[in-house]
């Protein structure tokens, strides 16, 4: 009996499981008997991207949060341990955290400092004029209807509008 157990252990070591994230995902997908086309339809990623993920061709895949989301969604579809898959991804690709960028005044150009484009400035003035005209029209309407008290009418010509 010990020899049979020893043989099973040797077979397990001789045929190791998949190494790496891509091989793991491929093995899980094949165990569920899913094709790349089926997975692509469910995840809304192209089969080419999934092939690249399973082949661990990181240069043709999106990076950062997008890659992490792809791995998480793929793991959920395969009902695998998502946290383990993400840690495998971080071990292979590196940390996926956003790296802070230090900006200095010398690295900024004048176009970076300008908050609005030229067209935006002109349209702001246009809106300001439209709002001002509407307020004036509303004010004259309020005076003509008698909604404004006489004490507020400081000019004689405004009092004549009320009559």
Automatic annotation (TrEMBL):
The keyword Ion transport does not apply. The keyword Transmembrane helix applies. It comes from the Bacteria. The chain crosses the membrane at residues 125-143. It holds the Pfam family HTH_25. GO terms for molecular function: DNA binding. This is Helix-turn-helix protein. It comes from Eoetvoesiella caeni.
């Amino acid at each position: 009996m010990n020899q049979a157990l020893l043989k099973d252990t040797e077979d397990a070591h001789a045929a190791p499981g998949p190494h790496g994230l891509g091989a793991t995902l491929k093995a899980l997908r094949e165990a569920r008997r899913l094709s790349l086309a089926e997975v692509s339809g469910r995840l809304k990623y192209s089969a080419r991207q999934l092939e690249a993920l399973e082949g661990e061709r990181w240069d043709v895949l999106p990076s950062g949060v997008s890659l992490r989301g792809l791995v998480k969604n793929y793991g959920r579809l395969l009902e695998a341990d998502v946290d383990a898959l993400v840690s495998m991804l971080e071990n292979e690709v590196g940390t996926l955290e956003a790296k802070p960028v230090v900006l200095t005044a010398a690295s900024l150009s004048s176009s970076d400092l300008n908050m609005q484009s030229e067209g935006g400035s002109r349209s702001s003035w246009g809106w300001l004029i439209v709002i001002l005209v509407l307020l004036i029209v509303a004010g004259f309407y309020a005076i003509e209807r008698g909604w404004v008290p006489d004490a507020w009418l400081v000019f004689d010509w405004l009092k004549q509008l009320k009559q």
